[in-house]
Amino acid sequence: MKNLNQFFWFCSGVHINTLKDYPTEHNKYVGIGATIFFTALFASLSGGYAMYFVFSGDVAAVFFAILFGIIWGLAIFNMDRYIVSSISKNGTVNKQILQATPRILLAFMIGIVISRPLELKIFNKEIREKLKLSYLNGQRSKIDTLNNTFTYKYGLELKKVKDLVTERDSLTTDINRSRYLLNQEIFGDKTNQTSGKVGYGTYAKQKEEVLAQKVNRLDVLRTDITAMEGFIRQRRDLDGITSERMFSGKQLDSLANVAGFADRNWALGQLSFKADGTRELGTFLAISFIGLLFILFECLPVFVKLMSDKGPYDVALMNTEESSIHGSFKNKDYHIAVIDAVQETKIENETERQKREIINSSKSAVYGE
How far is CA 11 from CA 39, 89, 131, 149, 254, in A? Predict the structure, then answer.
């Protein structure tokens, strides 16, 4: 238990030797340190999960996820530890709030970053369904675009086929009607289009000749239609339209499995909207509350530090810092005094040396003369 407390003290960024002298402060900094530790732990899991999707399908995906998760968790831990430990309780309330504002903004951004990958995991099932629908709509749109482009490109050929088919259908109906009239003529049925004479007479031969012409024309139409449809099928194959198909359920599952982080993040954002573009309030609130929970969790150490009263540890730390600053200034004065004394000694020695040189030079000049 003692080692665990000291570990959380380390996480909170306190001066452990000073804190040990004030037992009433122990639990407060254990709580702050535990909050910082678990925030870093969640950040590590979140970062690892995000990196796993970045390298999804790679054999080293798990290794990279673990490595990045550890690095990201340590980075968040270091920033949180610095944020909390840098807030001084020795200033006024306004000064403390002003000092903490940038830290709160940074904590707010960190909370958003570490919450997003975990939101992706929580709403994984809904995200997969949204991705499937998106891929299906995308494939349908692609096929429609290809068909529209093909129709514009080969409009004359398609119109010609349509006209030939219309003529063929009309001619087929006319041939059936002509055959019926021919049978009526042969069997002597009296109508406004038959003579009523039984047998294969002049009128029957005329009707048969007309029927033969229509059948020949029908054969020509069928040949032309077959040739044009073959040409269009060939064009469709070359333009890649024939090979395009709507995705099957198995293909959609496969695409959803390999979806990257960006696609999944987009799908999560789309969950907050209905098909008509209006807000889906329930899903929006659920996603928002999860994000706000992590933001609050990230900001909590800063809020705890701000809300807590100035304790004996804070006073002792202030005294220690003031003593260190005072000692630093004294050390500065000491070093300046030493440097000044050394410099004065050097000046005196140099002065004496040059005096002796001048005196010796003067004596040499006198005796030399």
Answer: 11, 18, 41, 63, 43
